[in-house]
Specification:
- The chain is mainly β and 109 residues long.
- It contains 1 helix and 6 strands; from the N terminus they run βββαβββ.
- The strands form 2 sheets. The chain has a 4-stranded antiparallel β-sheet, with no helix packed on it. The protein has a two-stranded antiparallel sheet with strand order 1-2.
- 2% of the residues are buried.
Length: 109
């Protein structure tokens, strides 16, 4: 940028563009994000298989998960658990009733 100076403030993030530094989002600014789609998935259990066991699977094989039927399922956004819930039936479809929202712990879970 030839001769242009960047605007700075106490909220300077260290990233600057021609219009100035990026500032933290204010609560009112979050409304602009309300239409952003995020991938949400539900993890009902896990299991560890060897490659041999995986290759040995056939149609009608049953994989036993390391989770009981009454254990909560995990609701994920991307790869982060954001809530726990229980499986429910909704008009012949499967659903999840949210039972607990994950607490934020400073970016770590």
């Amino acid at each position: 940028m030839s001769g242009e100076q960047m605007m700075t403030s106490e909220h300077d993030t260290g990233i600057s563009y021609a219009s100035g530094p990026l500032l933290p989002l204010e609560a009112d600014s979050l409304a602009a994000l309300s239409e952003v789609a995020l991938p949400v998935s539900v993890r009902i259990g896990r299991v560890s298989l060897t490659v041999g066991e995986l290759l040995g699977l056939s149609q009608d094989a049953v994989i036993t998960l390391e989770q009981r039927l009454d254990d909560p399922v995990e609701v994920l956004v991307g790869d982060r658990v954001v809530a726990l819930g229980e499986l429910v039936s909704v008009n012949d479809e499967m659903g999840v009733r949210i039972t607990q929202i994950a607490a934020s712990s400073g970016g770590e879970q």
